[in-house]
Amino acid sequence: LNKPSGVVTTMKREDERATVADYVANRSDRLFHVGRLDADTEGLILLTNDGNLAHGLTHPSSEVNKIYLARIKGTVTKTEISALTTGIELSDGFAKADTVSIVGATPGETAIEISLHEGRNRIIRRMCEHIGHEVIQLVRVQFGPIKLGDMKLGKTRVLNHTEVGSLYRAAQLVKDETAL
After folding, report:
1. Span 110-123, average pLDDT
2. Which terminus of the chain has a smaller tally of CB atoms within 10 A, N or C?
3. Residue 120 has what pLDDT?
4. Per-residue pLDDT averaged across 6-13, rounded?
C-alpha cells in the first residue's frame, strides 16, 4: 500500500479516521501490517497474512533496512548529517541512521534520503528535530528489498513470488508458500 498522509496504520477502526484496513477491506484473509507509519507519514506499508513474516521483518535482529525521503525546513549541514549517522541521544535511547544524503535543496528546505533499520515511534521526525530541523513531509520509499516505485498514493498491489521470497530472505525466514 502507498499510504496517504492522514491514514492510521491499524487494521481496526478506532475512530472516524481512515485506516490501512480500509484499503484492503475486500480481502477475505486476515492481514497484518508490517511495522507502522505515523498518520502524517506517507509511503510504503507492507501487508501480509503471515504474522511470522511481519514479526521477522520488524524484529531488530533482522536489521531490515527502510529508506525514507524527507523534506525538512532549513539548510542541512554536513555536521548535521554526520550527527544523524554517528548517532544522537533521544528521550527513548540512542538513535542512528545507517545512511543520510542530501538529494535536493530549495531556499528554506532540504530534501534528504535517510535509511535505518530500526523503527521507533516518529524516530526520523525526532532525529531531525534534535538537529534543529522540522520535517515538512516524510515518505517511506523502500522496505527491505521492496521499493515503492511509481505506485500512486492510496493504491495497493500484490507482490509477485520473487518479491515475497526476497522478503522472507530479508527476515531470515524459510518461505511459506501459502503466505501472500
Report:
1. 92
2. C
3. 85
4. 88
Give kind and range of the element (H or E) at residue 139: strand 135-143
Chain-centroid distance of CA 35 in Å reads 8
Average pLDDT, the chain: 92
15 classed as catalytic = no
Of 118, 135, 115, whose CA–CA distance to 61 is shortest? Answer: 118
Asked whether 67 and 141 are in contact (CB, 8 A), the reply is: yes
Ordered alpha helix ranges (H), the chain = 51-58, 78-86, 123-130, 161-170
d(CA 155, CA 98): 29
- Residue 68: C-alpha distances to residues 16, 24, 99, 108 (Å): 28, 24, 11, 20
- Cβ-in-10-Å burial (0-12, 13-18, 19+) of 15 comes to exposed
Q: Are 34 and 1 in contact (CB under 8 A)?
A: no
- Residue 167: which residues within 8 A CB-CB, separation 6 or more? 46, 53, 57, 144, 145, 146, 159
Per-residue pLDDT, 119: 80
| Per annotation, catalytic residue among 22, 38, 92, 150 | 38
Q: How many residues does the chain have?
A: 180
